[in-house]
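Batch manifest line 156
LIGAND: 4-nitrophenyl phosphate
JOB: complex structure
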Amino acid sequence: MKILVVCLGNICRSPVAEGILLHLKEQYQLENLVIDSAGTSGYHINEAPDNRTIQNALKHGVNLKPLRARQFNPSDFDEFDLILGMDESNIKNIKSLSPLPAHHKKVKLFLDYLYPNENKIVPDPYYGTEKDFEEVFQLVWNGSKALLNGLGYSLK
Ligand code: 4NP
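JOB STATUS: finished
ARTIFACT:
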């Protein structure tokens, strides 16, 4: 299973998801799981995650320092099985890059597994406070566990 998590800048929300999913993959020794993240924008290409994102994740033992931002590429539609956006605008931007229903079927909200049919989003913390970065971490932590359990990985 290949999962791509997408936000706008790929420096605040989706790197947290990439880091947590990689952390859970290692902790539970999950095989056949490929994780990546990207941004719909090209604003921060090749940058490390936002320093506030890095510092908050470190408090929880998740190291995001090696990650680098990249832009979503239409070839990702074929490369990944599941493409998860953090909010509705991410979903809209991703879907606008392909007309194919087979591609659109792969695109969902990241929190759909934790909160089915509620259209819940992970709010953008970029202009927010420390509290907003912690809220992102908690939502993404719980969402990541629900996602992996929902896909049939057993986290015990
Ligand atoms: P992200 O947050 O989409 O969670 O990475 C943002 C990061 C940067 C910007 C917007 C959102 N920006 O406008 O530069």
